[in-house]
Every structure is written in C-alpha cells, then in structure tokens.
C-alpha cells in the first residue's frame, strides 16, 4: 500500500527522527491546531512547511507565541483551486500532509455555506487528487469533526456511529471524511481522519464560545461589568486540550495501516457548567453577569456531543490527560496574564 514506510506500535514517548529528515506540510498552519502541531513536529526533527490562503498576510500570532514562526516554511495555497494545491505539494514534496485548513466555525457556516463546502470538502478532494498524482508516497491526515455525528442523545459516539450532520459545516466535514475513506479504499492511499471532539487552548480566537466566556469572565473580574451574551446554555460537549490532540494526529500517521479514530476525553459537561467554572475561577457568580440571547441560538443546534475514545487508547496508546476543569483553569490563567500584559 502506498506510503506505508513507518512501523506501527510506537512507544509512549515520541522519538526524534535522525536523517533523512521527514518533511511535513500543514495546511491551515496559522490556526490553533496548526501552531501546536508545527511545534510538536519540529520537536520530533521534522522539516515543517505550512500554508494559508495568502502567506504574506498570515495571522502569525499562534506561531510567534509558540516560538516556531522562524522555523517553518510558509506558502500560499488556495484549497479549492486544484492547480494551487498541486503546485504547493510538488514544491514542498512532503512525506506527510496534515490537512487542517478550511472553515472552522459551525455558526459561520450557516451564513457562508458555500464557503464551508468549498474550503472543507473541495479542499480535501483536491489534496487527495494531488497525492494520487505524485510519484512518491505521501501520508494524509484529515481533520474531521464530532459535528458529523449530530446529536448523540447522550450516547457515546464511536467510530461505528452513523453520521447525522446538522449544519453546513458538518455536512462538509462528512463529505471530506467519506472522500478520504473512498480514496483510501479505491487507490490505496495512506489517508486517515481524526474525528476530533472540541479541544481548546489560549490560542483560540474569541469567536469560539469557550474563549468568549473566558475573556468575559476575566474582564468582568477586572471591573468591566458589561454582561456576557450567550445562546443556548443547555448544550453538552466534550472539551479537551488542543496541545494533547496534535500528538494523536501524529500517532495516527505512524501506523502500518491507515484508519479513522474518535479523539476525545470521554467526559461531557454542559456549557452552563463551563461558564460556572470559568467565572468561579475569578471568584464570580456567573448568574449575575450572563444573559441568554435568542439571536445567538443556531438554527439546528446539537444538544449532546458525547464520545467513546477507547479505541484510540487501545490502538494508538493515547489517552487525554487534561480534562475540562483543567482546560478551563489553564485558559483562565492565560487570559489573566494576557490582560495584565495589555494593561501594563
């Protein structure tokens, strides 16, 4: 099978590669996962390239903050333009491609559904076609999403759980997932998808609800008492730590045979719980400052997102160590440090 050059059964620690240096290409390198993944791969001895739609105006805060901006090679690539994708792959000649690019917001996908389909589904198809045409073996990791499952009704989703997408974003992710599976079976590509549940860090932009909550609690604790407006607080999610999740992406790519995995902590809590704990970290009663705004409720929201990541633990020797309470505490501490830095 194409691309299967690395033995499986990796030990718990991550070895550093010697010569020849492995080459990795990360699409969407400027995002949260792209930054952490670049840092992780560099620590393993990889030569790392990364793409954005226009690298001359790339949002480099994450890469700079992680101290890796000067260690990665950046290139412009438009995912829904096949020529752009093929040229980028041919020039960088990667051994592994980590495909993280595309629209990342469920809420935005209702406003820009065509962009969701083009950037996620068509972008994935173009990468698969480019890999198929290359004359050297390339392994592909595709960033999947728990949103593909839809509402699990409290049942823990596994790799066998049917997909029931409920947003344009989720529909696009299901399409990309199925394309990866199809090209793996039809053409023997080493292509796999990580079905990742929510994972957070201080690198999250404020358009994500978790960071919106953390930063609001931080500013309110500092004296700004404007209320925090949120939509449905009765949604339940599995929130993990992003820096841990990039390691499992790499582990999936080192197996003898490619496969898809559910990646999560196995612990699900409500958004109300997340809000309560974030405000409590700053010594605040969230009920005094949080208002529910119906305008922020999505057309078809998912109430329960619950996961069973046991297969990843058995086969990849990976288990999430940072659960939701610690995720909240780490993000609160980082927000407080950032606020102090901005007011000095």
What are the SSEs and their pairings?
Blueprint: E1 23-27, H1 32-43, E2 47-52, H2 61-65, E3 73-76, H3 82-92, E4 96-99, H4 106-111, H5 113-133, E5 139-143, H6 168-187, E6 190-196, E7 199-200, H7 209-221, E8 228-230, E9 236-237, E10 240-241, H8 242-253, E11 261-263, E12 269-270, H9 271-281, E13 290-292, H10 310-316, H11 324-343
Helix pairs in contact: 1-8, 3-5, 5-6, 7-9, 7-11, 9-11
Question: What's the quick description here?
Answer:
With about 350 residues, this protein is an alpha/beta fold. It has helices at about 30-45, 60-65, 80-90, 105-110, 115-135, 170-185, 210-220, 240-255, 270-280, 310-315, 325-344, and strands at about 25, 45-50, 75, 95-100, 140-145, 190-195, 200, 230, 235, 240, 260-265, 270, 290. α6 (about 170-185) links the parallel β5 (about 140-145) and β6 (about 190-195).
Describe it for me?
The chain is an alpha/beta fold and 344 residues long. It has 2 domains: 23-200 and 241-263, NAD(P)-binding Rossmann-like Domain (Rossmann fold), CATH 3.40.50; 209-237 and 268-302 and 324-343, Alpha-Beta Complex (UDP-galactose 4-epimerase, domain 1), CATH 3.90.25.10. Helices cover 40% and strands 14% of the residues. It has 11 helices and 13 strands. The protein has a 7-stranded parallel beta sheet with strand order 3-2-1-4-5-6-11, sandwiched between helices. It has a two-stranded parallel sheet with strand order 7-10. Strand 5 (139-143), helix 6 and strand 6 (190-196) form a beta-alpha-beta unit. Helix 1 (32-43) crosses helix 8 and helix 5 packs parallel to helix 6. The radius of gyration is 20 Å and the shape is globular. The N and C termini lie far apart (57 Å). Mean pLDDT is 91; it is low at 1-18.
